[in-house]
Amino acid sequence: MEFVLYEVKGQVGIITISREKALNALNSAVLDELDKTLDAVDLDTVRCLILTGAGQKSFVAGADIGEMSTLTKAEGEAFGKKGNDVFRKLEVFPIPVIAAVNGFALGGGCEISMSCDIRICSDNAVFGQPEVGLGITPGFGGTQRLARLVGPGIAKQMIYTARNIKADEALRIGLVNAVYPQEELMAAAEKMAAGIAKNAPIAVRNCKKAINDGLEAGMDDAIVIEEKLFGDCFETEDQKYGMAFFLDKNKEKVKEPFQNK
Ligand code: DAK
Known about the structure:
Elements: E1 4-9, E2 12-17, H1 28-40, E3 48-53, E4 58-60, H2 65-69, H3 73-91, E5 97-101, E6 104-106, H4 108-114, E7 118-122, E8 126-128, H5 142-150, H6 152-161, E9 165-166, H7 167-172, E10 178-180, H8 182-197, H9 201-215, H10 219-233, H11 237-247
Parallel strand pairs: 2-3, 3-5, 4-6, 5-7, 6-8, 7-10
Antiparallel strand pairs: 1-2, 8-9
Helix pairs in contact: 1-3, 4-5, 5-6, 9-10
The protein binds 4-(N,N-dimethylamino)cinnamoyl-COA (DAK).
């Protein structure tokens, strides 16, 4: 891979978009490599992913404006579909994905972070949807995911004005869960990922699915989605072990890692 790095640390996979000379902007090659990287994640061992950008300046400075500038209408649609397919793959990826936003997250950069389950950022992070200033609409789900995350009023203001916001404002509106000094961001992301990875994997996956699918349904259907995914955990070895461990009154006993079975 030329633009996407992947490393596994214990049960955590770290994907780094690495196209620093263009502030990690998303061109077709980056999108293709991201797609292939996700397909290659070993779900038997990896229980949580972190997505970040190379360097200390930018997470992802958007879709590649140079590549987009010459697109025809049909090519624009194809490029949008390529991005949307990868972003959707991330959003419904079976295990949780944490975006560690280490700088600019503009346009497609803000959008890819919103396809992740959780966003944390460095104190120099900048978020925004600058597309209307370029004569286009957000094309990788920004009009949809931003409104769902921060509410339609704030989303419309950000999108219509194309104004960038800094980390503290992103925290205030709920776009990110926490802000860290740049040098502490990855350690915080890895700590959170390890905290997720130590829990029962089938249960964590089912929680992700229940939240995602439930948010797209009315409450009556959403509750049924939850019921089914709750029921699905029973008779797993991890459920039996987790409950037996709680019920065992032997305080000396050390909890074993969950088996993903
Ligand atoms: N694309 C391509 N190159 C980029 C880039 C981008 N988005 N952002 C930065 N670069 C490149 C710069 O051109 C420069 O390259 P060289 O001149 O060195 O060759 C290098 O990265 C360093 O950038 P700057 O020199 O500009 O660095 P500064 O610190 O001065 O400024 C900045 C940093 C992030 C404020 C600035 O680079 C900037 O404003 N960048 C553009 C941010 C932006 O507007 N992003 C949104 C892109 S629009 C759709 C599909 C997708 C989308 C829409 C529709 N469909 C097909 C439906 C998504 C659209 C977007 O994401």
